[in-house]
Amino acid sequence: MSNTLNALRKQLRLRRRQLTHFQQKQAEQQVLNQLRRLNAFKSATKIGLYLHAFGEIHTQKIIELCFQHKKQVYLPMICNMNQKLVWVKISVNQYKNKRLSHHPLGMKEPMASRGKHISTLDLLIMPLLACDHLGTRIGMGGGFYDRTLATAKHHPYRLGLAHSFQYVDTPLFRQKWDQPLDALLTPTQQYRFSR
Length: 195
Known about the structure:
Elements: H1 2-17, H2 21-37, H3 39-43, E1 46-48, H4 60-68, E2 72-79, E3 84-90, H5 92-96, E4 100-102, E5 108-110, E6 123-126, E7 130-131, E8 137-138, H6 144-150, E9 157-161, E10 183-185, E11 190-192
Parallel strand pairs: 1-2, 1-6, 6-9, 9-10
Antiparallel strand pairs: 2-3, 4-5, 7-8, 10-11
């Protein structure tokens, strides 16, 4: 099973890296158009988002849209003590001035600050490598989102963003600690799942 999963991860990472800048921008715009109409987005005040770094659906326009609609934007920061994510509220100025630090894993995160627990978020927009028809999400392999969600008293609405080829027909093996999605947006489709 793990060999199959590793092969799938490798294949999807490669496919994401092969996307052109134009394809990424087009995918970002198409996902943004769908997100605007999503009730979970319209009703959310506190939104957790990721900063794209490894070929995921880009989030720049989504973050800008959140600020335009006076929504609070929270970015993840890895807590070194327990390897869980905490969520740091950022301002428009922090974002525009790129006041972010580089994490050793390769992504950017907010400057060291006290973060909030994931339970405070209304909507969590998550990156992924693969997702199936049951909402099983395969991430990059670090388990940060799963560990963090597993201890949440209140679960925010979990929305995955993915390129169309990341939605797979074959059911993915779900470990007992894996945290499924409520919905998935691709550039061409919207999927809803029952948890």
